Amino acid sequence: MTVPKTLTIAGSDTSGGAGIQADLKTFQEFGVYGMTVLTTIVAMAPRTWDHLVYPVALDVVEAQLKTVLEGIGFDAMKTGMLGSVEIIELVAGYLKKHDLKRIVIDPVMVCKGTDEVLQPENTEAMLDLLIPGADLVTPNLFEASQLAKTGPIRSVEQMQEAAAIIHERGAKHVLIKDRGKIKEGKAMDLLYDGKNFEWFETDSVNTSFTHGAGCTSSAAVTAGLAQGLSVREAVEQAKQFITQAIAGGFRLNEFVGPTLHAAHRLQQS
To answer: What region holds the Pyridoxamine kinase/Phosphomethylpyrimidine kinase domain (predicted)?
Structure first.
């Protein structure tokens, strides 16, 4: 039996809801084989939930990249939190060297629960090195505004403008995700391929337990691409998956609640 192989290059969320943990759980739910390159470790102060960010040494990141890219290979991959400009440069160099395809860039800029960009210089590095040639870029509204340099996005028209700008920077497809900010009560995702704007819309789930939703969504798309789906098909499948995962979200502690990656499977049973 041939099992599709996926790779996530991202950070570790010690609480288990986001980052590499969310990616691996999602890959497992889709029946694809997940591999990892760990770039950052994020821990939390137990009494305040302040985020503590520890980048992984560059040579350790490179050793992991070589393990997967030179020793195994993959059918699709995604990036998440990349801890420094140097790590972005390293990852971009390996992607170019091996002429890799089915690349999903999730441009993680902040930890959920914070409103400050972790490393602003990373945005410029992503624009220069990772966005060009990416098969899909999956920003939320804030990340899209940073990549497109448009200021806050508050309307459908501004979402389309930002998607077009990001596409012009070299991404083959752009998926901007919104959870009820543009249209109250609606979770609206916009996919742009350079020619057509397509909307994927569902009713918003009334919950604050959405930790890891962005990571989970992009991982679901990556799994679909590894299984041979087109970008559009993978996005549509991932939309159904993340909607169910958010609906199954639960309280983890007094500070946070993650999505439930097994929700689709539990609902079926």
So the answer is: 13-259
